[in-house]
């Protein structure tokens, strides 16, 4: 099973992502409407300062693995 850590959660300005494997990966932050609001790859620190307060989902994936976690932006 593929897992990742995202902290702090709830987050204010920045989100840190830790992944236990060294493959190339994509990260998407998706709002509750299913719209991708941030998209990046192989990045461990993500700037959330432009996002409105609310609930989002963090999707981390590559061609072999995927995982989703809920994110609360304060």
What would you note in describing this structure?
The structure is a single chain. The chain is mainly beta and 74 residues long. It has strands at residues 4-7, 14-19, 26-31, 36-41, 45-47, 54-61, 66-73. The strands form two sheets. A four-stranded antiparallel β-sheet has the order 4-3-6-7, with no helix packed on it. A three-stranded antiparallel β-sheet has the order 1-2-5, with no helix packed on it. It starts with a strand and ends with a strand.
Whole-number average pLDDT? 93
Strand arrangement, major sheet = 4-3-6-7
Low-pLDDT segments, ≥5 res? none
Q: Total number of helical segments?
A: 0
Query: Which architecture would the CATH scheme give at its second level?
Result: Sandwich
- The radius of gyration is 11 Å
Classify the helix fraction into a percent range.
under 10%
The structural class is mainly beta
Could you tell me the CATH topology label: Immunoglobulin-like
What is the overall silhouette? Answer: globular
Q: Count the domains.
A: 1
Tell me the total number of β-strands. Answer: 7
Layout of secondary structure:
Elements: E1 4-7, E2 14-19, E3 26-31, E4 36-41, E5 45-47, E6 54-61, E7 66-73
Antiparallel strand pairs: 1-2, 2-5, 3-4, 3-6, 6-7
């Amino acid at each position: 099973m593929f897992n990742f850590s995202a902290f702090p959660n709830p987050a204010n300005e920045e989100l840190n992502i830790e992944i236990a494997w060294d493959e190339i990966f994509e990260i998407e932050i998706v709002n509750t409407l299913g719209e991708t609001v941030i998209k990046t790859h192989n990045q461990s620190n993500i700037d959330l300062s432009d996002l409105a307060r609310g609930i989002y989902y963090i999707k981390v994936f590559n061609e072999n693995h995927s995982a989703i976690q809920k994110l609360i932006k304060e």
